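Our consortium's second objective concerns turning raw sequence data into structural hypotheses that experimental partners can test. To show how far this objective has progressed, the report includes one record in full. It was chosen at random from the queue rather than selected for favorable results. The single chain below, 88 residues long, was entered without modification.
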Amino acid sequence: MKQTEDQKEIRRLKKHLQDLTDSVLLYIAAVDAEVGPDETILSGQSKRLAQLTNALEIQNDRARYFGLNVDHRKDDKGKVIKKLLKRK
């Protein structure tokens, strides 16, 4: 069965979305490592950074769950991040 141009374009766009959401996961992991757990956030600037990172994570989850059909019940972001870091 020959794939249509639309199917090829959908696969290409999903690949770009996957790359983007993977980059966001790595960014969030790096920020979390810098800032530390929520209990240790003292400065207003760090609190604001944590709030912005949380908002980014929510939007990234939406893209992964609805755009890439990742099952949120089986989603293990820690495992995904480890796998991504191994690739680098």
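The partners drew two points from this record. The helical segments are 5-35, 44-67, 77-87. The first helix runs from residue 5 to 35. Both points have been shared with the crystallography group to help prioritize constructs.
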